[in-house]
Write a structure and sequence with these properties.
Blueprint (H helix, E strand, L loop, with lengths): L8 E5 L4 H12 L3 E6 L2 H13 L4 E5 L5 H15 L4 E4 L14 H29 L2 E6 L3 H4 L5 H21 L4 E6 L7 H8 L7 H7 L9 H11 L21
Parallel strand pairs: 1-2, 1-4, 2-3, 4-5, 5-6
Bound molecules: NADP nicotinamide-adenine-dinucleotide phosphate.
The site of NADP nicotinamide-adenine-dinucleotide phosphate has 31 residues, from helix 1, strand 2 and helix 7.
Length: 254
Amino acid sequence: MVESPDEKVAVVTGSASGIGLGIAQRLALDGIAVGLFDLDVVAAESAAAKIRGDGGAAMAVGVDVASRDQIDAGLQRVRETFGPITVLVNNAGKEGFRRFLDISPASWNELIAINLTGTFHCCQLVLPDMIEAGWGRIVNISSSSTHSGQPYMAHYVSSKSGMVGLTKSLALEFGPAGITVNTIPPGFIDTPMTRRNEGKGRFGPGGIDEAISRTPVGRAGRPEDIAAACSFLVSDEAGYVTGQIIGVNGGRNT
Ligand code: NAP
């Protein structure tokens, strides 16, 4: 069995808010140094300061995952501070909600650029560190809409479904290098994104309560639910789990 590095270093994208923030906090509690990448560097810095205040190691970097150059520069800063990166969580994402016939090519391209191509860039730029270490963990945060499809979200669901295919292909290609690659498709997690959707009436007139009534476990998910699954997937014990879709959705998709 390949030994994992003594000091693990993670990058979590989109970690100033919601699910990514929950994941960054959890990985720091697990003893992993975390680079928080986000468009909102002020919020990311305040999240990193809180993690440091709680005894963890964290730094914030302003990165738009649609920009390969910004990712490259951000990764370099994390390496200079903490060392080679052996854990990557691709969480940054943007949703879209529009009738298919009204989705503009620009809007299609934007969602693909952030959700799918951003994940491609991050994986391609971090994998050399993992190959060198002979150990690595990648977790891609996709969406439960990839199980079910979702009307008015064809661009979003297509980008997230691409992340699932990318996950499976990388798992096969890099398994022999000691690297696992899995995806967590969250379903109905209470985050700022979900609250924005509620505000736009996307859960129906009953709002979040209506969505909860369609959720077998009878509550909305929390960022901590995704973080717990992610914590397992990046652990040493998860070395035999790769190429998998680990749904965390309260039973909404089975
Ligand atoms: P959120 O609360 O909106 O957090 C997303 C974070 O990503 C925000 O801090 C956002 O920054 C950042 N971000 C957006 N675009 C970025 C970019 N181009 N580069 C860097 N950072 C960027 O959303 P969430 O609900 O936690 O969602 C996290 C992930 O889970 C997303 O990929 C989402 O698609 C997926 N997901 C969520 C749910 C759910 O129920 N919440 C369900 C399925 C999938 P700004 O706020 O500055 O834009």
